[in-house]
Each structure stands twice: as C-alpha cells, then as structure tokens.
Specification:
With 456 residues, this protein is an alpha+beta fold. The protein folds into 3 domains: 89 residues; 139 residues, GAF domain (Beta-Lactamase, 2-Layer Sandwich), CATH 3.30.450; 137 residues, Histidine kinase-like ATPase, C-terminal domain (Heat Shock Protein 90). The protein is built from 11 helices and 11 strands.
Length: 456
C-alpha cells in the first residue's frame, strides 16, 4: 500500500508538468489548423488564454483533490499506527490473558467510537468460542467465573473464524447471533478474525450506531489489530497454563513437606509416649510431667507450622503483576497479621521478569524466611529488598533479631527451614545464602535467574 501511494504521488508530479505542455501545444495546433487565417491575432490570443485558464482550473481541481486523497490516506495510516502503538504499549509487558483482552477491546472501542466490543477465543477443549474480554456488553469476564461462553450468540464471530476474513452485519437487529449478544439496540457490527502464526485463534467484534456505517479503513484497522494481538494472546494463554502448572507443582511440594513434617512429629510423639508410659509405670511423675510439657510444645509448633503452610498455600501470589508489587503487598500483609514491622526497601535496577515457576519458588522462600522471623525473632523488625543485575534478581530478607550461631545450629540439626529454602532456590537455577551471628540479626539472600530474553 505504501508503494501504491508513492507511485501515485510521483505520477501526479509528472502529470503536473506534462499535461499543461501537451494541452497548450495541442490547442495551438488545432486552433491554427481550423481558423488560423479567419480571425485576428488578438482574438486568437484571447481564446487561447480562456482555454488555458479553464484547463488550469480543471487541472488544479484535479491536483488538489488528489492531494486531499493522499492526505486522508496519510492521516488514516497515522491513526492506525497510533492505535496499534498504543495497544502494543498496553499489552507488551503483560502476561495476563484478562488484561490483554481488556486492553484490546478498550483500544478498539475508543478508536472506532463504538458502543460495544468483544474478544472471543476458540477453546482448545471443544472448539467453542469463549468471550475473554469485552467493553459495553452486559456480561462479565472475570477470573472468578472464567471466560463467558458465547454459544450461538457470537455476533458472527464463528463465521469470521471459519472464513478467515471480516464479516459485516449492516443491521444487527436482523441477525440472531448479534441480537442474542447485543440485545435490541439498533446498530451495525463487524467481526474480524484473530490470527497467530497463520492460524485463526479467535475473533474481535465491534458494534456501533447504524448511522455510522463501517468504512473500508475501519475494517482494515480492526483486522490489523486482530493480526497484531494474536501472538500476544497466545503467549498470555501459555503463560496462564505455565502459572497453573507451577501452582500445582507447588501444592504437591508443600503437601510433601507437610506430610514429612507431620510424619516426623508423629514419630517423635510415638517414641515420647512410650517413654511417658514407662515413667508413669515406674512412678516418676515429675519426669513424666516434663515429657508431657515438651510433647505439648512440639505439638503446638507442628500445629502452627501446618496452619502457616495452609495460609501461605492459599494466599495468591499477587493481585497485580510484578515482583516488586508482590513483595510489597506481602510485607504489608505480614506486618498487619503478626505485628512485626516489615519494611519494603524498594526495587533497584530494571523490572524483574521471572518465569511463573521461579516466581512461585521465590515467594515461598520469602514466606519461609519471614515465618522464621515470626517464630525466632518476634520482637524485631524485618526488611525486604529487590535488586536486578546481570540477568539475575536478588531478594534480601534481614531482621535485627537475636540471631544465632549458624554452624552450631546446623550441627544440632535445627536449620530453621534452610534446607527447604536452599532446595527451592536450586530447583530454579538459583542460590541461597544465610548469614547470622548471635546478637546481630539474620540475613537471607536469594539469587534467581530472570526469564530468558526478558531481562535488561
């Protein structure tokens, strides 16, 4: 299209030079051959000037009309680029399907000055169309209820997907698929396919007042949006699947940890019960009471650990994207729940873009470290920070609690979850370092790699 516009402008420039010359030459030849000796020279000059003036006026009208057409084309191209650039800026960094779909329908609705817009994707399970984003419709697409199944009320999206090209409905009241979704509002609708890597994966539909029929430029713009957004939507779907898989794997890991912890506790209680029975049989009441007290302490700790594991597992990682916001929200929630001040010191460096699995493991490490603060340094303060450098994200957790002697603690087998945290970090290609001294607090540093191709 750009080549055609360029050729039209060049042709117009040559016509503006050649046409007047050809016209004057032809006019002179024709007039002199017809009545060159019949009229005075001054009459011939007047007639020539009049003819040239009329021709110049007609030619200038043609030239300016052509220039206005080219100008309209340029303005339309700029408008299209502005819409596509704004949409790209909205969705380029998002991995959330709902956010990408909402940004798409919002941008299309504003660009077309429309009344309603929707984005539907083809389900991989049964091939049905699922509404994943909308603006101006009386339906909801939220994470709680999932995508909205369109069924037969698809505003001709199914036809656009099947044909692989735009489908125009001049009067929505005459189309059952449109009235079922748009209601009785009178309007005109267009549905265009969404494509990714040569495959049609869904459709965008837009409806507006019937007094503003769709122009070719409008349909081309929506089609361009469908072509641009296809790959982004597919990536968002893959990211959602990866996040779901990461959560499932994390639940399995936590269930194993809870199971192992409870098994150890029950094993300990079983041994202590045998000791308690022997002490009671021999009449050693004081020793028996001491054993009961220790068993009660172990039982309470196991119960608290189990409750904390359940709370951490149920807690969503973040209501907003980004590691910085996730950790800030967690620090605020930890402070409210425990009464221990937890300060988020901020984020240094570029954004930390992590894979879903890495983010899950990193958040669980932070939760484990903060649980240790609550259990072993209840009267202290804690600090959280994030730094991105050299394609890695460094998260530091430190407190000003009593601290402990690291070597002797490891020798006695009380590692405060160090083994679990280290295992989590290493499972995603990262590392963990713990530093603590009596009277000098504790610091935990976790280093994990950024998602490939997404770091600074």
């Amino acid at each position: 299209m750009l080549g055609i516009r360029y050729m039209s402008t060049r042709r117009l420039r040559w016509i503006s030079v050649i046409a007047p010359t050809v016209f004057v030459g032809a006019f002179e030849i024709v007039t002199r051959s017809l009545y060159g000796n019949l009229v005075p020279p001054w009459v011939h000059v007047v007639v020539a000037l009049a003819a040239v003036s009329v021709a110049a006026f007609a030619f200038s009208t043609f030239v300016f009309a052509s220039m206005r057409g080219v100008e309209r084309e340029i303005m339309e191209r700029n408008r299209r680029l502005a819409v596509l650039n704004a949409l790209a800026a909205d969705v380029s960094e998002s991995r959330d399907l709902e956010q990408v779909a909402a940004a798409t329908t919002r941008s299309v609705l504003a660009a077309m000055s429309a009344e309603a817009a929707g984005l539907a994707l083809v389900s991989e399970e049964d091939g049905s169309l699922q509404l994943v984003g909308q603006d101006g419709l009386n339906v909801r697409c939220t994470p709680e209820i999932g995508a909205f199944p369109l069924g037969e009320n698809d505003c001709e999206c199914r036809k656009a997907v099947a044909l692989g090209r735009p489908v125009l409905v001049e009067d929505t009241t005459q189309s059952m698929p449109c009235t079922g979704l748009l209601g009785e509002r009178t309007g005109t609708c267009v549905a265009v396919p969404v494509k990714s890597k040569g495959r049609t994966t869904g459709a965008i539909f837009v409806a507006r007042d019937r007094n503003r029929p769709w122009q070719r430029e409008d349909v081309e713009l929506i089609t361009a949006v469908g072509a641009q957004i296809g790959t982004v939507l597919e990536n968002a779907q893959l990211s959602s699947k990866a996040e779901a898989l990461a959560v499932l794997q994390e639940r399995e890991r936590v269930s194993r940890e809870v199971h192992d912890g409870l098994a150890q506790t029950l094993g300990y209680l079983n041994v202590q019960m045998s000791i308690l029975d022997r002490l009671l049989t021999s009449g050693e009441t004081e020793k028996a009471q001491s054993e009961v007290g220790e068993m009660a302490l172990v039982t309470r700790e196991a119960y608290q650990d189990l409750r904390q594991a359940i709370v951490d597992l149920r807690m969503p990682l973040s209501s907003t994207p980004g590691l910085r916001r996730t950790l800030r929200e967690y620090a605020e929630k930890f402070s409210r729940q425990t009464g221990i001040p937890c300060h988020f010191e901020g984020h240094r460096g570029p954004p930390a873009v992590l894979s879903p699995t890495t983010e899950v493991q990193l958040i669980r490490i932070v939760q484990e470290a903060m649980t240790n603060v609550k259990k072993h340094a209840p009267g202290s303060e804690a600090w959280l920070s994030v730094e991105v450098r050299n394609q890695e994200a460094l998260v530091a957790i430190r407190d000003n609690g009593p601290g402990f002697d690291l070597e002797s603690t490891i020798v006695r087998g009380r590692q405060y979850g160090l083994h679990t945290m280290k295992e989590r970090a290493e499972s995603v290609g990262g590392s963990l370092r713990l530093d603590s001294r009596p009277g000098d607090g504790t610091a935990v540093e976790v280093m994990v790699p950024l998602e490939k191709g997404k770091g600074a």
